[in-house]
Amino acid sequence: MSPIPGSGLAKGLAVTLRTMTKKTVTAQYPDVQPHLPPRSRGVIGLFEENCTVCMLCARECPDWCIYIDSHKETVPAVTPGGRERSRNVLDRFAIDFSLCMYCGICIEVCPFDALFWSPEFEYAETDIRDLTHERDKLREWMWTVPAPPALDPGAEEPKELGAARKAADKLAAAQAAENTPPAGAGPADEGGPAGGTGPASGQGGQG
Ligand code: SF4
Ligand code: SF4
């Protein structure tokens, strides 16, 4: 059966009318910035103070696009007669974003919270080699990482916060002790034996 003359035109017009009434989804990027969810996987930031060079992220990365170099350093004993310790010092940390597939495995496996997602995505390059971001650039991304969502009311405080507060209190107490002159101390005390203050009190604090 031959088609009714003009039916094709009517179908086409029907499609046009249907799509004309739908909400447009075209984004006018880059004139208009997209509204991305705060946890979008844009780029990875490195907080290198937390990195212990354990190499877990580099080992687990399916694309082998994390490059880490380090060396060992000996840390002297903190107490007399104590043992020296050795620790890893980071020399290089780089991620090649031309290979990265944004799976997030490196961030998931990092046991020390050194890697984070940032929603920033505007880092296209004309030279593919520039997509390897070295540690300085990875650190800069860190400052674009959004703050974590607020805890639920009545939720238990994360242990990291408690530990950080304890360390800050300890530091403040040590600084206050340094700035407080010993009671009754004066020029006359300088030549005399150490009293109840000074190094002896510091040792008491450690014990
Ligand atoms: S997101 Fe995935 S592919 Fe990219 S660096 Fe991390 S582990 Fe590798
Ligand atoms: S897993 Fe975390 S701590 Fe270990 S090397 Fe990678 S970033 Fe550093």
UniProtKB/TrEMBL annotation:
Domain annotation 4Fe-4S ferredoxin-type: ranges: 42-71, 91-120
Source domain of life: Bacteria
Compositionally biased tracts (Basic and acidic residues): 156-169
Compartments (UniProt record): Cell membrane
Species per Swiss-Prot/TrEMBL record: Streptomyces peucetius
Binding site for [4Fe-4S] cluster 1: 51, 54, 57, 110
Binding site for [4Fe-4S] cluster 2: 61, 100, 103, 106
Pfam families, per the entry: Fer4 (PF00037)
Keywords: 4Fe-4S, Cell membrane, Iron, Iron-sulfur, Membrane, Metal-binding, NAD, Quinone, Repeat, Translocase, Ubiquinone
Family: Belongs to the complex I 23 kDa subunit family.
Assembly and oligomerization: NDH-1 is composed of 14 different subunits. Subunits NuoA, H, J, K, L, M, N constitute the membrane sector of the complex.
Skewed-composition ranges (Low complexity): 170-191
Reactions catalysed according to its record: a quinone + NADH + 5 H(+)(in) = a quinol + NAD(+) + 4 H(+)(out)
Membrane topology: Peripheral membrane protein
Cofactor needs: [4Fe-4S] cluster
Enzyme Commission number(s) from the entry: 7.1.1.-
InterPro entries: 4Fe4S_Fe-S-bd, 4Fe4S_Fe_S_CS, NADH_quinone_OxRdtase_chainI
UniProt biased composition (Gly residues): 192-207
Group of enzyme by EC: translocase
Keyword Disulfide bond: no
Annotated cofactor note: Binds 2 [4Fe-4S] clusters per subunit.
Protein name: NADH-quinone oxidoreductase subunit I
Role played: NDH-1 shuttles electrons from NADH, via FMN and iron-sulfur (Fe-S) centers, to quinones in the respiratory chain. The immediate electron acceptor for the enzyme in this species is believed to be ubiquinone. Couples the redox reaction to proton translocation (for every two electrons transferred, four hydrogen ions are translocated across the cytoplasmic membrane), and thus conserves the redox energy in a proton gradient.
Region Disordered: start-end pairs: 146-207
The keyword Acyltransferase is assigned to this record: no
